[in-house]
Amino acid sequence: MVQSITLDTAKELIDAAERKAEEIDNPMVIAVTNSEGNLVAQRRMDGAWLASVSISRNKAYTSAALDMPTHELAEPSEPGNSLYGLQSTDEGRMVIFGGGYPLFDDEGNVVGAFGVSGGAVEQDMEVAEAGVDQWESIRGDAHVEASD
């Protein structure tokens, strides 16, 4: 049985990230996926780039698929390193720069993932981390549901 993030929780996480995006005055697209990388919720703030819709979703997908933040993929994906070419796999859905984070339950299992796009990589990461911080403050069995 796979545990996955609920829609209500996804909305709460997106709200937290949107507040951070407003604080830094940068419109973003914010996506939350389930444990399998399938979209649960996504929000495009007014003025956010159209390209960020798919980028944010793919950042979340990458984090869910590989159980790691996307910024940790940059160096291993450089020419000559073990994951070189990763970004061209999985129908181009793999993202190797910051803004994607897995969401873990108390046992260390991925229950969802977060992806943000719309600014410089550092801004994407800062906004995504606000959502992850919100997850850390509320996580627990009340915020995940079982799925087959």
Automatic annotation (TrEMBL):
SUPFAM superfamilies: GlcG-like
InterPro entries the UniProt entry points to: GlcG_carb_metab_protein (IPR052517), PduO/GlcC-like (IPR005624), PduO/GlcC-like_sf (IPR038084)
Pfam families: HbpS-like (PF03928)
Protein name: Heme-binding protein
